[in-house]
Amino acid sequence: MIILGIDPGYATVGYGVIEAQRGKFRVLDYGAVTTPAGLDFSSRLQIIYEGICELCDRFKPDAMAVEELFFNTNITTGIQVGHARGVILLAGHQKGVEFNEYTPLQVKQSVVGYGRAEKHQVMEMTRHLLGLEKIPRPDDAADALALAICHAHSAKSNLLKVKL
């Protein structure tokens, strides 16, 4: 199964593509779709949309794992990330990719085994599970890879439920 993990944003959209087979993971690619700060917002959304479409065309993922939105303190930023998340989901839908949402707590639980794990613990365990020498950069890409791992674990347990 090929999984495209996405950490949504509007300046930086982290992505990580893994192949998951029988509990083993292989990294196919990771990085970020970035948009210039001075560009009008609709053009930034277009860059994000086209970047996600290109990733879907290149890797033909079976599933997309996207972080659920949560509002911290800046509601304006949250709304802008929500718009970006919308074009990400639209791109995946138009490319025929099943999408799944995960909260940060679910990702931490799946990757580290503890839902209140610190960010550095998640990044280190992501590096370890994927057999990488270094923690992926930017941080958004590491987060996206963790989302992909979370989906691989979740999809595996869902398959077991169906077989029972």
Give a quick precis of the structure.
By secondary structure, this protein is α/β, with parallel strands linked by helices. It has five helices and five strands. It has a single domain, classed as Nucleotidyltransferase, domain 5 (2-Layer Sandwich).
Give keywords:
164 residues, alpha/beta, Nucleotidyltransferase, domain 5, five-stranded mixed beta sheet, 5 helices, 51% helix, globular
Give a written overview of the molecule.
The protein is of the alpha/beta class and 164 residues long. The protein has one domain (2-163): Ribonuclease H-like superfamily/Ribonuclease H (Nucleotidyltransferase, domain 5, 2-Layer Sandwich), CATH 3.30.420.10. Helices cover 51% and strands 23% of the residues. A five-stranded mixed β-sheet has the order 3-2-1-4-5. Strand 1 (2-7) and strand 2 (12-21) form a beta hairpin. Helix 1 (41-59) runs parallel beside helix 2, helix 3 crosses helix 4 (119-129) and helix 3 packs across helix 5. The chain starts with a strand and ends with a helix. The model is unreliable at 159-164 (pLDDT under 50).
